[in-house]
Amino acid sequence: MRVLVVLLLLLSGCSIAGGATDGDRTTVTFRLWDEQVAKAYEESFAAFEQRNTGIDVTVQLVPWADYWTKLPADIAAGTAADIFWTNTSNYGLYADSGHLLPITDGQRSGWTRSVVDLYTRGGTLWGVPQLWDSIALFYNKELVEQAGVDPATLTWNPSGNGDTFLPAARKLTVDRAGKSADQSDFNPGTISRYGFNASFDSQAVGWNFVGSNGGTWQNGDAFDYADQPKTVEAIQYVVDLINKHHVAPSAADTNTNGDKTLQLFTQGRLALFQSGPYHLKNVQEGAKFRWGLAPLLTGPSGRVGVVHGVAAVASAKTPHREATEKVLSWIGSADGARPIAAGGFAFPGVVAAEPDFTEYWRQQGVDVTPFRDAANGVTFPAPVGPRVQAGATAAQPILQQMFLGRLPVPDGLRQAQAAANKAIEP
C-alpha cells in the first residue's frame, strides 16, 4: 500500500503529471487544495488500495492561493492530475473544451442532488460530488444573551419594516467606552466589538442577502446584478452595515484579509458570524467561549442561502482511464466518503455518509441542523459558466472599491458587471 501526500513546490516550477504505470501497478494522481481534507483522503485511499492491490493513489496538495494558476497551466501542458478538485466557477471551461471525462457512475442517485445539478452542464455530469456547504449563523452565546438577542429569529429588510436584524447588530456593536451602536454617544472610531461580518464575501454574505431579497446574480452565463433593483437594494444594505451603521469591520481590513472576520469572531470581537461549515473546525479550535449555530438571516423573500459544492473531475488525457474510473467510483461511495464525514471536515457529497458528519459534531456539542435546513430550503445558485471565474476576477477590484465606500453601490455594480461580462466574452 502506498499513499503519498505531495506538496507541490511552486518555486521549483515543477509540475507533477498524471499517474504512471510501473509493471503491474498503476498510480492515479489526485489533486486538491485543502490540507485537512487531504488527511481524510489518505485514510480513504488506504482502504481503496487494500481492495484494489494493483492501484496506488498519490495525493497532490496545491494551496488555494496557487491552485487556479497551476491548474490551467498543467492542463494546457498535459501534466494535470488524473483526478482533481474543482468548484463551480472553474469546471465549465474545462468541460466545454473537452478536458474532462463525463461521469457515468451508476451511484449518482446516492449523491447530493444540489451538487449533481451544479456539475451538470449540457445534460452531462462532469464531477463526482465530494463535499457541500450551505450558510448559517455562528453566534457568541454570551454576547447575544447579554444583549437580549435571539439569533434564530433575525429578519432584515431594506425598507426597515419588520427589520429586527439591524437593531440587534447595533446592540451587539460596542466601542471602547462600552457604548453600543444604538446609543447616541457611541463612537464609531473606537469600536472594540462588531455585531456582524458584513464584507466582500459573496458566498457567506452577499449572495445570501441578494437571494433573500429576491434578486439575481446571473442570467444564463452572463452577469445581470446591476440590472436587478432587488440585487442593488440588497448589496446597498450590506455596504451600509459597514459604512453607514458601523456594525461591521471596515472593508479596508476585510478586503485584503479574507479571514479577518473569522479571526474577530474567534477572538470574541464579533458577535454574529454568517458563514459555512468550512469554518466549523476553525471556530472549534479558535473560540474560547460558548458558541452555537442559528439559521441564516431571513429577508423579504424568506430565508434563502447559497449552496455550493466541490466535485472531483477526471482529466480526459489520463493514460489509464480504467484505474481512474475505479478511483472516481470509490470516492463516490459511502465507504470512500466516510473519512471526510467522520472527521468532521465537511458535509460529504455522498448522502449515506452524511450521518457520520452530523454525529461527529453532535459529539462536540454542536448541532449542524441549520446547515442542513438551509441546503434543503430555498437556495440561491452559486455562479456557473465556462468563464465565470474570469468575470469575477475582473469585477473584484471594482466591487472592493464599492465596499470601501469609494463608489456608490449602483455605479459600482454597473461598472463591475460591465467588466465581468467583457471578461467572459469568447
UniProtKB/TrEMBL annotation:
Subcellular location as annotated: Cell envelope
SUPFAM superfamilies per the UniProt record, alphabetical: Periplasmic binding protein-like II (SSF53850)
Alphabetical keyword list: Signal, Transport
InterPro entries registered for this protein in UniProt: Bact_solute-bd_prot1 (IPR050490), SBP (IPR006059)
Claim: Ribonucleoprotein is one of the keywords in the record: no
Signal sequence, start to end: 1-17
Domain of life of the organism encoding this protein: Bacteria
Pfam family membership, one: SBP_bac_1
Keyword Transport: yes
Family: Belongs to the bacterial solute-binding protein 1 family.
Name used for this protein in its record: Sugar ABC transporter substrate-binding protein
